[in-house]
Structure formats: C-alpha cells, structure tokens
Amino acid sequence: MIRHIVFFSVRHKEDVETVRSGLQELGKIPHSKHFEVTLNTKVDLFSNAIDVVVYAEFEDDAALAAYKAHPLYSETTSRVKPLRELRYSASAWRWRKSRPGEGQTTCPGALASFPVISPGGGNGGNWN
Hints:
Elements: E1 2-10, H1 16-24, E2 34-39, E3 52-58, H2 61-69, H3 71-80, E4 84-93, E5 96-97, E6 104-106, E7 114-115
Antiparallel strand pairs: 1-3, 1-4, 2-3, 5-6, 6-7
Helix pairs in contact: 1-3
C-alpha cells in the first residue's frame, strides 16, 4: 500500500475553498483505495504555510501511476495550479508486519528489514 500525501498553499486566501473543492474532484478517479482532501488546522507552532492537504492510498506503484495518468488528474491540475503558491508531494510505502507473530517489519522497496523493538521490552531493547 502506498500513502500519497500532497500539501498545497494558495496564492490568495480567498481561493482556499476553490482549491479544496477542485482537489476533491480527484476522488472520482477510481484507482485509489482511500482518498480525502482537508484543510490544514494551522495549529503548528512553527509553520502554517500549508492550506490544503490531499491524502490518498494506492495498492501499488501501478495504481498511483494510473491515477496520475487519468484525464481528470490533468483537468484538475490545470484548474488548481494557477491558484496555488506551493505544492509538496510525498509517496511512501505503508509499513507492515512481515507475517503475524514475526518480529520483523518490512517495506516493499526497502533495502532491509529491521527488528521491532519496543521501549522496556520486546526484543530486550535498551532505551536508556
């Protein structure tokens, strides 16, 4: 599962709702397992530059690529792009246990798996 998160800031604050509603159209593209668009709560002490957040989950790289190749993606981009100031995007594999009961966590595309260590126990990890 791939988590795809995109952060937007708008040029003019009066366009926040237009950008949000425009980005919600992307939820009509059938390739995502989960899709949501939300406004930033702006409670961070250091930076509140981001106005709108898109969060989506895709089964794999092919599903994410198909989403981006969909005609509605291009249409939405052409409507939203002139209104935005910044756009930051990140896509990452969702981590999961290898198999029930195993103490290894894996991530497709990762170079290695690593042992799961919990504070004060688990594999005897020392957190001091």
